[in-house]
Amino acid sequence: MFRGPFTLPQKSGADWIVIRTSASDAELPPAGTRIDPSFAGLMPRLEATSGAVIEADRGAHHYRFVGVEIRPAEGSFLFNLVLLGSTETSAGQQPHHIIFDRCYLHGDPLRGTRRGIALNSQFTAVVDSYLSDFKEVGADSQAIGGWNGPGPFKIVNNYLEGAGENVMFGGAAPSIDQLVPSDIEIRRNHFFKPVSWKIGDASYQGTPWTIKNLFELKNARRVLIEGNLFENNWAAAQNGFGILLTVRTELDAAPWAVVEDVTFVSNIVRRTASGFNILGVDDSSPSRNGRTRFVRVANNLFTDVSAAGQGGSGTLFQILNGASGLTIEHNTALHDGPVISADLLPSSGLVFQNNIVEHNEYGVFGSGKGIGLPALDYYFPGYVFRRNVLVGLAGVRPYPSDNFYPASLAAVGFVDLGGGDYRLSGASAYRRAATDGADVGADFKALSAATGQGTAVMAPGAPDRQRRKRGAIEPKPGGDVRTGAESGAGADE
Asked: What are phi and psi of 232, to 5 degrees?
């Protein structure tokens, strides 16, 4: 054990300084494979009782951590385990080219820790690592969060556990004018909240941690979210949406804030009280600045999006206040609330096509406008709404003509509905019935390739266990993170 806090100093030259375990490469899982806590015995432990365990000086650069455990001293509460920048006022002052590779970062199991890594830096990567027990009572907590770093950022193949937002970009005003965290790659991670944090669950451990969502963008640009598993979210300190794209200018301290050019593809989202909450114009901005625009949500599987036992509303997509350029296509969703719920300013340019969804009571609902065409016409000017399978809608069908209405999920023609194989069987009427000639709903071959999970393990069954034995860790796609050119990871809290 090494007692900190530790500081990464600014240095000359572009050579890498590597801080790593003394264990041999053969003893660690290979690069491209996620670490887990069973390897902690091989790791040097860095800890502190106050401050951050690791803090970067202004301009610190080219540091790589491999196989290191970072934690608070036992019984200590820390605000950050790793603080990479905070209040710098120019890009030249920021830390850059810093990598965490196959590291184990965790808060105190009883007292928690507010944040694992504060990413207010440039050219930063977190890969193949395990971040857990980031939780706090009365304040937001994150495994990874950032607000004053421009990127690029790479967050790939990690286990990410946080009570507030598992990962968040935005949430505080940048101290650099016009800064938007950008060029963010988030791939093949497992976002998870233990149900032992959930009041009322049989496993509840007695501390009311502040629970909000699994992922949130408040200020971010050019973000790829691909091949992740998002799991377990319920209504508590927020209303239960798992994924939030909710632009915030921080009361116009950052009037330039945007959430734009976001691609959310080939992910699995399961066991959440509601799905997406998308806010177009910041309703807390006095000048009504801030915009969410150009978002694509495609080829995802949503299961157990449900208010039952989780609070919330079971809504799949809540779209509010003037979002623009939204494309939602080729998703398969099992949910018990509205398909879309809309309110405030109209959101132009919606494309909603080739999805399999449950209509339930309200389907596409607009506040003050009702269900179906009146809601689409008012809230989504210029919309496209085609070739969707709207399950369970009986009687009047107040939607555009080019859609489908099976009576039940069983009538859709899944390969194995009960077993969680949501591919369409050869007998399904919706095979090759999409606008592009493909199957309606998700492409499960592409989803399996992106997530690394088989096509028949998509159901909301037993979660990935947090404490796995050696030899049972998941493989991850490659991507050499040993040189700065390939590295990036972004954040904003």
From this structure: 80, 100
pLDDT digits (tens, 9 = 90+) for 210-237: 999 999 999 999 999 999 999 999 999 9
- What is the rounded CA–CA span in Å between residue 176 and residue 253? 11
Q: Which amino acid is at 493?
A: E
CB atoms within 10 A of CB 12: 6
Write out pLDDT tens, residues 369-398: 999 999 999 999 999 999 999 999 988 999
485: which residues sit within 8 A by CB, 6+ positions away?
none
The token pair that represents 418 in the structure block: 């009960």
φ and ψ at 115, to 5 degrees? Answer: -150, 140
Count of other CB atoms within 10 angstroms of residue 178: 10
Q: Can you read off the two tokens belonging to residue 22?
A: 């003394």
Which are the contacts of 465, defined by CB distance < 8 A and separation ≥ 6?
none
In this structure, are residues 166 and 139 in contact, taking their beta carbons and an 8 Å threshold?
no
Q: Residue 49: helix, strand or coil by DSSP?
A: coil
Query: What is the sign, positive or negative, of the torsion defined by CA atoms of 350, 351, 356, 362?
Result: positive
CB contact at 8 A, 5 and 50: yes
Q: Which two tokens stand for residue 120?
A: 């207010």
How far is Cα 351 from Cα 279, in angstroms, rounded to an integer? 17
